[in-house]
Amino acid sequence: MRGIPKPSDLIEEIYDAAVEPARWNDVVVRINDFVQSQACGIISKDLASKSGATHYYCGADPHYIQLYAETYAQFDPLATLPSFGRVVSIPDLLPYDEYRRGPFYQEWLQPQGCVDVANALLRKSAGGSAILLTFLPGKSRMMDHAMRQRIALIVPHTKRALSINEAIDFKQSEAAVFSDTLDGLNAGVFIVDASTRIVHANTSGQDMLCADDFLRLVDGQLVARNKRASLTLHSIFKGIAAGNNVECTALLLTAHDETRYVAHILPLTSAARSGIGSAYKAVAAVFVRRMEINVKSCGELVARHFELTPAELRVLIAIVEIGGVPEVADALGVAETTVRTHLQHIFSKTGVSRQADLVKLTTGFSSPLVG
Length: 371
Description:
This protein is an alpha+beta fold.
């Protein structure tokens, strides 16, 4: 047994839990020791449904914790509290004799050997939920002035610690959503600083780096295999960091097998940097994609949008992949007149009149998502 903690030690432990939530279970025990109550917990209540949930507790039988959540939270006379920080017990809110005749006392509190409950409001949301610090003073004991003072001492620190937990959770969730979104793209995405050092790379980007071909990772920096392209990248990033007016720039990259890729460099504004959680170092986003399209996938999207028939879709895909009418007719094994007829129907449905425009329209349906 560690005994009753000093206020300064307890406050330090509370703020430790602010950055490491797993500590709350132990901290609640220490709070209970400090207040010298029978049991305590941090609970949330839905003020509309009057349901309750206990997040951290000590000193109470789990059976009664479950009963509270399922049934007796709705009968709790401390379901609503007047203001933040004020420590309130049963006699502060209603006649004690009246309270003792109710189900909350008769069926939940008295069987635990308790006669009073003390609550302090930590936070209330616009959605109608409240976070409370709750205490059972002890066997047949009412809350006294000394206990009330001890609770009041730790309430503001507990509130701030929980707010820090919430802020950290929000930032971590935001970062996870950002990362998951980028990982869903088939383009390699690199967030870089002024010295071309990678702040973040999505899954496709990491795959490109692992191939160690047209893009490489050297001492944490994004480097192109082609020396001139690498110098260009570095110059662009330095210009962005210096505040120069650099618009979105495209850069051609070539792999060993002559496969071509295009890198688009997008300067990040201060708001965009803040959104990715790297305001102090990220200056640009680099999107790298192979110079090809999935014609079949694009064609199917065009077909659904413009209600093309299966035959018209086959002609559309062949036009994009192969080119002229005679070549398409040979590839599909049909007459040129048949191809021309289908092509005229496609032009009519899509609103374009040239094969070049049809190719441009189809490539516009290319999906950036991983297939």
